[in-house]
């Protein structure tokens, strides 16, 4: 595991100079030199459209069950989906805040308002629980593929699931999604929570009968402990956020849903109308899955960026050095402490960075104070309340259109297409944050905003 330490830090700093500002916790933008034309590499990818379609079909099979178990999904026919909204007033507020003109159109993808668990984890996390339940029930002869999946709510199925357990390690939101869905089906669920996890998330899970194990350490440790427990427990499924292809594919289904929403709203995406998407990144599965799905649909016309806290830039460090999960931010002396609890991850996924190497346009980092300011700005201009992690995508357009983005825009031939471009900030969570916590976040952001103006 200690590949990074085989070379002294001074040598790393020479061969990879961007590590200097990274270690100094400076906000920065990295443009991926290994990005390739999609057509050139599509055949080399280990996953593709057939895998994503399989995941989408599975979610469709579960739709009747989901409507019955979670009636607020009825308006989307049992699909767990969120609105895509234009936010021109926010765009203007960003122009004022950063003193920059922002051509093109800014939209918000409101995964903060996904039903069931109020974060992007309601895509991947819930998908993996459903897939596991389906596999078990099919094997046990309790279900067949063309059944009405509401059969899964019958006592026979629930009693069966009660003999099985699901374990996961989480900074909070993944545990929430898996706990709520798992408990609903009847599974025994155990969530190993990192120190960053908010108390209200733990309390909510306990109220659903989920076992919550609290760890004084960070996310990687919580995952490790969960993995250990699962190995020692019979009939136990471990949801491995650092490695899971199922989680990844669950997230990737978002792309075709987004394509439909863009179509419905008359938003064109083609070579003359580029699409830019900014995704908050923790371990990488969520943003990776969504970006991967988008590349399959839009190819070179979509440009995906990940956003990380300056104190938890694990994907940036992993992709920039090419070491991926063989390095942690702690090994660079970065503390992995951030108000963006959903992104407080020190070591990236074992496969997402590798898979995204030819597909991702870049990664930028943000200070906690920037996240708080944007939280207040979004609340004031559009009355949308998010959790700090979820704001990371919002200034992506600012980063790109400011000076640091110019060489990239010119090199990619995008500089003269910006008036027709669409930018989507992926708002990854926040709808379930309790009122008190929400107003504390807002007050912090407001104070930082007025300090800026003074
Ligand atoms: C988990 C999470 C992310 C990032 O997802 P990863 O799969 O960890 O990269 C972003 N925002 C919020 C609110 C999250 O909970």
TrEMBL record:
<dbReference type="InterPro" id="IPR036052">
    <property type="entry name" value="TrpB-like_PALP_sf"/>
</dbReference>
<comment type="similarity">
    <text>Belongs to the serine/threonine dehydratase family. DsdA subfamily.</text>
</comment>
<keyword id="KW-0456">Lyase</keyword>
<protein>
    <recommendedName>
        <fullName>Probable D-serine dehydratase</fullName>
        <ecNumber>4.3.1.18</ecNumber>
    </recommendedName>
</protein>
<dbReference type="InterPro" id="IPR000634">
    <property type="entry name" value="Ser/Thr_deHydtase_PyrdxlP-BS"/>
</dbReference>
<keyword id="KW-0663">Pyridoxal phosphate</keyword>
<feature type="domain" description="Tryptophan synthase beta chain-like PALP">
    <location>
        <begin position="100"/>
        <end position="403"/>
    </location>
</feature>
<dbReference type="Pfam" id="PF00291">
    <property type="entry name" value="PALP"/>
</dbReference>
<dbReference type="InterPro" id="IPR011780">
    <property type="entry name" value="D_Ser_am_lyase"/>
</dbReference>
<feature type="modified residue" description="N6-(pyridoxal phosphate)lysine">
    <location>
        <position position="121"/>
    </location>
</feature>
<dbReference type="InterPro" id="IPR001926">
    <property type="entry name" value="TrpB-like_PALP"/>
</dbReference>
<dbReference type="InterPro" id="IPR050147">
    <property type="entry name" value="Ser/Thr_Dehydratase"/>
</dbReference>
């Amino acid at each position: 595991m200690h590949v990074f330490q085989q070379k002294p830090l001074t040598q790393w700093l020479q061969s990879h100079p961007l590590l200097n500002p990274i270690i100094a916790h400076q906000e920065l933008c990295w443009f991926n030199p290994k990005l390739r034309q999609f057509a050139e590499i599509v055949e080399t990818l280990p996953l593709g459209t057939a895998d994503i379609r399989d995941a989408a079909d599975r979610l469709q099979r579960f739709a009747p069950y989901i409507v019955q178990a979670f009636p607020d999904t009825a308006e989307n026919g049992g699909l767990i989906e969120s609105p895509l909204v234009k936010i021109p007033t926010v765009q203007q507020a960003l122009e004022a805040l950063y003193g920059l003109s922002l051509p093109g159109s800014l939209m918000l993808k409101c995964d903060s308002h996904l039903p069931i668990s109020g974060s992007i984890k309601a895509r991947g996390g819930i998908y993996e629980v459903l897939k596991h339940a389906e596999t078990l029930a099919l094997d046990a002869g309790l279900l067949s593929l063309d059944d009405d999946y509401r059969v899964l709510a019958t006592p026979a199925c629930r009693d069966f699931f009660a003999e099985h357990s699901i374990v996961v390690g989480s900074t909070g939101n993944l545990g929430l999604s898996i706990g709520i869905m798992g408990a609903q089906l009847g599974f025994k669920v155990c969530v190993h929570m990192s120190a960053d996890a908010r108390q209200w998330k733990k309390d909510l899970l306990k109220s659903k009968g989920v076992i919550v194990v609290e760890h004084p350490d960070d996310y990687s440790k919580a995952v490790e402990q969960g993995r250990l427990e699962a190995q020692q427990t019979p009939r136990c499924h471990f949801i491995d956020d650092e490695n899971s292809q199922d989680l990844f594919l669950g997230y990737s289904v978002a792309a075709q849903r987004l394509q439909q929403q863009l179509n419905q709203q008359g938003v064109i995406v083609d070579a003359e109308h580029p699409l830019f998407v900014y995704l908050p990144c923790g371990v990488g599965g969520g943003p990776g899955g969504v970006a991967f799905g988008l590349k399959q649909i839009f190819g070179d016309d979509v440009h995906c960026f990940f956003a990380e806290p300056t104190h938890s830039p694990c994907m940036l460090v992993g992709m920039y050095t090419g070491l991926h999960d063989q390095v942690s931010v702690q090994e660079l002396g970065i503390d992995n402490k951030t108000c963006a609890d959903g992104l407080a991850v020190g070591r990236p996924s074992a496969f997402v960075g590798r898979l995204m190497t030819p597909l991702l346009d870049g990664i930028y980092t943000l200070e906690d104070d920037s996240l708080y300011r944007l939280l207040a700005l979004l609340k004031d201009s559009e009355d949308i309340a998010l959790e700090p992690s979820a704001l990371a995508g919002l200034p992506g357009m600012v980063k790109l259109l400011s000076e640091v983005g110019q060489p990239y825009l010119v090199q990619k031939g995008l500089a003269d297409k910006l008036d027709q471009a669409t930018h989507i900030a992926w708002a990854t969570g926040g709808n379930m944050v309790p009122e008190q916590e929400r107003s504390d976040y807002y007050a912090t952001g407001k104070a930082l905003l007025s300090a800026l103006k003074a």
